[in-house]
Amino acid sequence: xxxxxxxxxxxxxxxxxxxxxxxxxxxxxxxxxxxxxxxxxxxxxxxxxxxxxxxxxxxxxxxxxxxxxxxxxxxxxxxxxxxxxxxxxxxxxxxxxxxxxxxxxxxxxxxxxxxxxxxxxxxxxxxxxxxxxxxxxxxxxxxxxxxxxxxxxxxxxxxxxxxxxxxxxxxxxxxxxxxxxxxxxxxxxxxxxxxxxxxxxxxxxxxxxxxxxxxxxxxxxxxxxxxxxxxxxxxxxxxxxxxxxxxxxxxxxxxxxxxxxxxxxxxxxxxxxxxxxxxxxxxxxxxxxxxxxxxxxxxxxxxxxxxxxxxxxxxxxxxxxxxxxxxxxxxxxxxxxxxxxxxxxxxxxxxxxxxxxxxxxxxxxxxxxxxxxxxxxxxxxxxxxxxxxxxx
Amino acid sequence: xxxxxxxxxxxxxxxxxxxxxxxxxxxxxxxxxxxxxxxxxxxxxxxxxxxxxxxxxxxxxxxxxxxxxxxxxxxxxxxxxxxxxxxxxxxxxxxxxxxxxxxxxxxxxxxxxxxxxxxxxxxxxxxxxxxxxxxxxxxxxxxxxxxxxxxxxxxxxxxxxxxxxxxxxxxxxxxxxxxxxxxxxxxxxxxxxxxxxxxxxxxxxxxxxxxxxxxxxxxxxxxxxxxxxxxxxxxxxxxxxxxxxxxxxxxxxxxxxxxxxxxxxxxxxxxxxxxxxxxxxxxxxxxxxxxxxxxxxxxxxxxxxxxxxxxxxxxxxxxxxxxxxxxxxxxxxxxxxxxxxxxxxxxx
Lengths: 392, 348
What we know:
Number of helices of chain B: 12
Structural class of chain A: alpha+beta
Largest sheet of chain B: 5 strands, mixed
Number of strands of chain A: 8
Strand content of chain B: 15-25%
Strand content of chain A: 5-15%
Helix content of chain A: 55-70%
Radius of gyration of chain A: 28 Å
CATH architecture of the largest domain in chain B: 3-Layer(aba) Sandwich
Mean pLDDT of chain A: 87
Strand order of the largest sheet of chain A: 1-2-3-8
Structural class of chain B: alpha/beta
Helix content of chain B: 25-40%
CATH superfamily of one domain in chain A: MetI-like
Distance between the termini of chain A: 52 Å
Low-confidence stretches of chain B: 17-31
CATH architecture of one domain in chain A: Orthogonal Bundle
CATH topology of the largest domain in chain B: D-Maltodextrin-Binding Protein, domain 2
Number of domains of chain B: 2
Shape of chain B: globular
Number of strands of chain B: 14
Mean pLDDT of chain B: 87
CATH class of the largest domain in chain B: Alpha Beta
Radius of gyration of chain B: 22 Å
Largest sheet of chain A: 4 strands, antiparallel
Shape of chain A: globular
Oligomer: heterodimer
């Protein structure tokens, strides 16, 4: 070997690299140590490791499921039910938290004393009470306040609210796929039209009524399928049935369980306070000169907010709001306390108990939350990049 | 890029740490009795109990645990350490209990746990006996017009606990009757009681002893009743880790000694005076004959201490279950000589 040419290059790049490699090496060793330790201990105690249990029959039922499920399905299917329920409540939560958060955030900056103060009170109260208490509050307060099935609150004889849930009519479609494709078609047309409209505006200064055309497309196209596409829709209205002297139940229709309602409510009310603060910070972060300049060229207040302030504020709002979305998703695991069958209750709860496979099930559950969170992160980072200032 | 790799490594490390921690603690081998040695060294028995089930394991305001499950822990402490009070109680949820035992956080699990094949065979546990024969039942409102399980109809909603055999029995039962039902499963018993009380569900199902105990927590206990049918067998008993047969024997015979003591009329007040009894079975129980304790590394008065400090099974039942009005009637939990099914192998 020619040692003359063998020289350790201590340029800056390598100086940085060596500690990093050492760190990674150390971490790998730690992981190996813990894995061996766990294997050892499991071996000593006669615990086997494996994922074969996932295909076994679960033999427990779940209150509420988006897909077809009962106890004769597998644990893997039960996992999927839990996962979908987690995604459902998180999506509902994120939707309403954003809606409420933006409204309250703008409200806090309102000139109107009453609006500004109520928004402030709302934020201060709801962000300072632990979430689990709020969930219990909404759930048990709602359960105590709602009437029994037989005295349900009646909405125009088609929808009923009682302690067992909110019963709404079930949609019964014929040719649903045609209707569905028409909506996709409408969405695509809208995207193309708005691009065309923007081009017209940029090149010829012509303002096209984008909003009305979009609305027309979105309503008109699906409506057409009813007239000529053979699509029809009927409703199955929930009906009260007596099971015994004082036990009643609504059958037919769709039942939205109180656990879902109260969990979604608590999650969105709580998270909305943080989003509201982000929105307020974002709006305040936009230079005053921008608003004054916009006002001086004659834009209305709504136009200023929509065209000048918000696009700039969003850059400040999005990153911390991503955190809130992640928090909301993870917080949805508190569902177990009020019997909403999310992944923690169904999989890391009942399934774990029935099979005793703690390590396998907890690892799967952790990986699932990790993937959920990372997907939200990736999406929000993409969106953030899209609206970021593009330097030319 | 480096930054995101670092994040990933951190995430992986954190998860593996969590996984490892679940298994890392404690330690007990398979040869001799490491558990017994560790217990003697520590000076207390590590016992897993419920988070509060009156009659079985329940803590009062000053943190003293009582109940028939607690008495099993106390019996083991009396036998091994000579003092029934030398127990460290760990309240566990249904979900945590087995992991706590297999990981070595506790050495005895006395937490109204149903003995089933899969639990016994599959997850590194050994059931040592039965200290309460229970069965699952249903509680309904008195005015509901439901007088038997045959009055249940499609659409009935049933509240229960997660992580118990109850959930499985409920499904088996409703399936066999071909009834569609709405299962609502909570993590903690207190929430089940509240939800049932508020009318969220039409019936509350769990072990009958549990129903009797939880009924007292309802806003109007007298408006509710337990249906006569029992839909499952729930033999509840103490559990130990697999692989330490000496420790397993100690726990098994501590429980058996209490039951046998009742059978021979030996109780906490007369035990020491029975040392010169004519009956050899009694003499063995109070340590006046034979060398029974040596078999698992204890002295000869291990069972005498149990009877003196904890009492026999009948005393324990009367104090915690009957006198507290949970289940005044012993039913199957009566001795075999008196029409029940309590029957233990002879201590000889």
